Amino acid sequence: MTAVNHKQATSSLSLDTRILNFRTLGLQERVDMLIQEMGRLDALSLRLCTLIAQDDADAVLALVAEREEIVAMVGPLSASIEHDWSKLSPREQDPLLAGKISSIMGMAGAIAARDQEDMKALETTHERISTQLAELAVASRASRAYGDGPLAAPGVVPARFQDREA
Known about the structure:
This protein is mainly alpha-helical. The chain is built from 5 helices and no strands.
């Protein structure tokens, strides 16, 4: 069974069941499966950049939840591959498989770098929103103090203070 067929057959299974299922695969199939999962992570990482730039918080949260499921699968899958690969002597290690493992490491590095940039962008967005909320609070207090304008709380006594010359 190829990694693609395995993915299609297990996409509706629970994460625990999927982890148990991949343990029955050979090293080559697990590496192929990991490449596929890393490709999904990479695609989601690229999409995350766009959603952050669009300030689409709901979509960002949904995407992060989807990523968490993939990461939960990738961790044990990667560990099992690393464990089995380390048992092989250099002579037993297939050069093609070694190239795929190297490719996986490159993908992981690129995703991690992009994630760092995304974290910076999210922090900037957080700071911007915090500043806007603080400014809104100041404007709301001023409105309540000086008048019963659109930001005044309902039922507020008419303004006690006014900025005008006598």
